[in-house]
Amino acid sequence: MKFIIIQIAIFVLLASTAALAQLKIGVSGGAVLSSLVRDGQMNARQGKVGYMVGASARLNLGELGWFVQTGMSYTLEGDSDQSINFLKVPAVLGLDVSEDVNVYVAYDLAWQMSNENNAQDFYNQTANILGLGAELYPGKKLAIGSKLNYGLSNLVKDPSGAKNFKIRPFTLEFYLTYFIISN
C-alpha cells in the first residue's frame, strides 16, 4: 500500500510542476495480447485479446537521455478460460536512444480488480510484473509503443496446498500515447 501512495505522490508532484521543461504528461490506450503461464510453461489454451487505458507522467533526467516515468493503467488480460482486470502502477526507467526512439524497463505493481469467473478466493489480489518496452515518436505529441510483460509473482493463492502450482500473466501490449503536456 505504501508503494501506491508513493507513486501517487510522485505523479501529483510531477503533474503539479508542469512548468518543468523536462516533463511529459500523456494519456494512453491500446491492445493487450495475453496468456496465463501455468506451471512455468505456456499451455495449449488460447490467448486473449484485451485492452489497456491509462495516464503517465515522465521526467527527463538530463542531457544523457535517461528518464523516469510513473502513472496508472487499467488492463483486461487472461486467456481463453479466464479474464482478469488489473489496475497497474508502473515504475519505469528508460533511455532515449535517439530523438525518435526510446527503450525502457518497467516494474508494475498490479491489483486484481475483478475476474470473469469471480474466483476472488482463488487468486492473490496483487501481482508483481516485469516489463521491457520501446517507443517510437512520430511527432512531438505522439508515441507508439510496445511492451512485453512477465509476471514475477504467482497469481494463485494455492488453496489446495500444491506449492508448485503457479499461474503468471504474460502479455504483449501495443499502445498509442498522446502527450497533453510535452517539452
Describe the structure.
Strand 3 (66-78) and strand 4 form a beta hairpin. The protein is globular, with a radius of gyration of 17 Å. An eight-stranded antiparallel β-barrel has the order 1-2-3-4-5-6-7-8. The protein contains one helix and eight strands; from the N terminus they run H-E-E-E-E-E-E-E-E. It is mainly beta and 183 residues long. The protein has one helix spanning 2-16, and strands at residues 23-38, 48-60, 66-78, 83-96, 101-115, 126-139, 142-151, 167-181.
List keywords for this structure.
183 residues, mainly beta, eight-stranded antiparallel barrel, 1 helix, 8 strands, 8% helix, globular
Question: Which secondary-structure class do the elements indicate?
Answer: mainly beta
- Biggest β-sheet, characterized? 8 strands, antiparallel, barrel
Q: In sequence order, what are the helices and strands, one letter per element? A: HEEEEEEEE
Q: Helix amount, in percent?
A: under 10%
Any idea what the radius of gyration is?
17 Å
Instruction: Specify the number of helices.
Output: 1
Mean pLDDT: 85
SSE blueprint and pairings:
Blueprint: H1 2-16, E1 23-38, E2 48-60, E3 66-78, E4 83-96, E5 101-115, E6 126-139, E7 142-151, E8 167-181
Antiparallel strand pairs: 1-2, 1-8, 2-3, 3-4, 4-5, 5-6, 6-7, 7-8
